[in-house]
Amino acid sequence: MHAESGEWRRRFAEEARSERPGLAPLCLLIGTEADPSLDDAGIDAAEIELDRLAGLLPFRPGGPREWATAMAELLGERCGFEGTPGDYQRLDSSLLHRVLRRRRGLPILLSVVWMEVARRAGAPVYGVALPGHFVVGFGPKDDQILADPFDGGRLLTGADAELLVAGTAGTGIQPSMLTPADPLNIVQRILNNIRAWAAARPERSDVALWALELSLLLPAHPARLRYERAQLLVQRGDFLGGATELDAYADVVTTVEPTTAERVRQQARAARAMLN
């Protein structure tokens, strides 16, 4: 954790617990963990860029389809925001300030750009968390238009959405998949992507750790994340810190999963034994 990380994390937790958590601020605060050079000026510059892009949109183009088309023409065609398979191999693809600069990123981060730009311009926009592939939606349920920012903003037919879900999840599309995604769920999904990136690169356990610790600052998170953090601390050589966390997790689950709690306490004892 670099010097200013404590303050950034305090701000992240405060934003996450506010009445209306801001998606762009939370994503930019994630960026401070990965990029120590990102400061208040850099955060402001990213917000200003989102404002600038919103100012390039035509004034209230019309209904959901017209909004989606205008966004695709601006961000996809004119500005070149899109994704490629190689973007999945880059941590930059999960960091909003870098995505704004590179105009490349994962589907969910490109969708964040779309949502933040369209929202500033007054569009009825929201994220849609299809399994394995995040897109954006415009308009009410009975007049919904979906667009895929990763594909330059291609407007999706119902059949297109079915194919996307079938290709990533192997199932048919369900109405519940098309509901607007909550900002905090979007942030959790971004952090999960970062953890998955780090899991494939054992030498980047530092990234896995800060992504876990930010997830734990969200108001609602799986209790198991505490166990995963404890395991990671042990793997990184912090045997005492990991053992303490393992015991704390065991205390949480002991009433509902006593067998699991005992196994975790054994892991804590084994971690402490490594100190000898």
Question: What attributes characterize this protein structure?
Answer:
4-stranded antiparallel beta sheet, alpha+beta, 276 residues, single chain
Q: How would the blueprint of this fold be written?
A:
Elements lengths: L4 H12 L6 H12 L5 H16 L8 H15 L17 H7 L4 H14 L4 E6 L2 E6 L6 E4 L5 E3 L1 H12 L13 H17 L5 H11 L8 H12 L3 H15 L4 H16 L3
Antiparallel strand pairs: 1-2, 2-3, 3-4
Helix pairs in contact: 1-2, 2-8, 3-6, 8-9, 9-10, 10-11, 11-12
Summarize model confidence as the mean pLDDT.
Answer: 92
The portion of residues forming beta strands comes to 5-15%
Sheet/helix structural class? alpha+beta
Number of helices: 12
Number of strands: 4
The low-confidence runs, each spanning 5 or more residues with pLDDT under 50, are none
Q: What is the percent of helical residues?
A: 55-70%
**What is the CA–CA distance across the termini?**
26 Å
Q: Can you summarize the main beta sheet?
A: 4 strands, antiparallel
> What is the general shape?
globular
The strand order across the widest sheet is 1-2-3-4
Rg: 21 Å
SSE order, one letter for each helix or strand:
HHHHHHEEEEHHHHHH
Organism: Streptomyces atriruber
InterPro entries: SirB1_N
Protein name: Transglutaminase-like domain-containing protein
Family: Belongs to the UPF0162 family.
